[in-house]
Structure formats: C-alpha cells, structure tokens
Amino acid sequence: DSGVTQTPKHLITATGQRVTLRCSPRSGDLSVYWYQQSLDQGLQFLIQYYNGEERAKGNILERFSAQQFPDLHSELNLSSLELGDSALYFCASSAGSGKNEAFFGQGTRLTVV
Amino acid sequence: SQKIEQNSEALNIQEGKTATLTCNYTNYSPAYLQWYRQDPGRGPVFLLLIRENEKEKRKERLKVTFDTTLKQSLFHITASQPADSATYLCALREYGNKLVFGAGTILRVKS
C-alpha cells in the first residue's frame, strides 16, 4: 500500500459528461501529480501541485482542470468527455517538489461510452 | 523538451538469468534518474533512484547504472524470477519539476 488513495476506482460515464477524480496523498506529502495512461500507452504527465499551488503543467487539455485543497487532497475535473478520454488516471504524491520519488495510487479507470 | 527512450520490444528471458533494461534520454542533464515497476492495471511502484554523481546503485537483486556522458541508464535484475515479470519505467524530472516517464519495457521471465 503506497498510502495514496484515489476514488473512485472505476467510473463509467457518457460522452459530454463531467466527472471529478479525487486523490488523497500520503501523510505529509506536499506534492501531488496527475497522470493519464491510455490502453497500452505510457504515463502522460498532466499537472503537478505543490502545497496548493500549480507547479508544473503537461499537455493537459483545456477541458481538464485540477486543484489542490488546503488539506492537500487534490481533484481532477474532466469535462465534455469524449471516448478518447477513456484511460487510467493516476495520482502520485511526493514529499517535496523536486528530488523525491513519487508514490502512486491505484488509479481511477474511466470509461466513456 | 526531454525525451526518454526505452526498449519498445518486450524482453523475454529465462529464470535465473540477468535482465538488462535500457533508458536513454536527450535534451536534458538530469541530476538524478528513477526506476519504477508497473504491473498491469496497477500504479507504478518506485524501485531505485540514482544521482548524477553515483555511477552505480544496488538494492538486493537490482542494480542501476547512470552514465551522464552517454545519457543512458541501465537497469539490471540478477537471478531473475517469474515474479519479476512486469513493465519497468524510467523517469526524469524536467525543468520545472515535471516528472516524466519513458514508455516502459515489458519484462517476461519464463520458468
């Protein structure tokens, strides 16, 4: 158990809908990262937050947004969903913003139908 | 931007042999490099971190080397076991702390 909790584990929704994925980092970790992994694809970096502030951004679609709350949990919001958004979404956390290893949650499997 | 290349073809080896996986990178001079293991449908699990001033690092049956001149890291699993079968990912931090991953190499260890 990595200590990172993601909910829900599975999500099935229709095209055009909006969903929110939630991540609770390991106790004490200030950084949260979000990744997308499509079938048989690598991990695509979406966004990183550090202590409530956006720290780094990847090729995140404008339909996607995220935030980190004062209690350090994070949410990833996906809107106007398309079939191609079906993927595993991982959250990871690390102690700092730089050199530390990342600990991943078990992911949320999103299926858009 | 940073580009990370790992063997796209799966590596099939016999139990007991040493598996060697390669990670090459371009357009960056990272201070350190990380290796992770990922099982199907699961989140990656951190294995080892090696810094630029460390030529080699070991942990049990795992060994990582880091050649900043060649811009390459090698990941070795000695005395491999079927339970070592997984996808192995290398990762680097880009400027701005973005942690980026290679596509991974699938390792299959046959008994």
Distance between the termini of chain B: 41 Å
Q: What is the CA-CA span between the terminal residues of chain A?
A: 31 Å
Rg value of chain A = 13 Å
The helical percent of chain B reads under 10%
Helix content, binned percent of chain A: under 10%
Q: Count of helical segments of chain B?
A: 0
Helix and strand content put the structural class of chain A at mainly beta
Which characteristics define this entry?
heterodimer, A: 113 residues, mainly beta, seven-stranded mixed beta sheet, four-stranded antiparallel beta sheet, 11 strands, B: 111 residues, six-stranded mixed beta sheet, 0% helix
Structure description:
Chain A has strands at residues 5-7, 10-13, 19-24, 31-37, 44-50, 53-57, 64-68, 74-78, 87-94, 103-104, 108-112. With 113 residues, chain A is mostly beta strands. In chain A, a hairpin with an 8-residue loop joins strand 9 (87-94) and strand 10 (103-104). Chain A starts with a strand and ends with a strand. The model of chain A has no long low-confidence stretch (mean pLDDT 94). With 111 residues, chain B is mainly β. Helix content of chain B is 0%, strand content 57%. Chain B is built from no helices and eleven strands. Chain B has strands at residues 3-6, 11-14, 19-26, 32-38, 45-51, 56-59, 62-67, 72-77, 86-93, 99-101, 105-110. In chain B, the strands form two sheets. In chain B, strands 2, 4, 5, 9, 10 and 11 form a six-stranded mixed β-sheet that branches. Chain B has a five-stranded antiparallel β-sheet with strand order 1-3-8-7-6, with no helix packed on it. In chain B, strand 9 and strand 10 form a beta hairpin. Chain B is globular, with a radius of gyration of 13 Å.
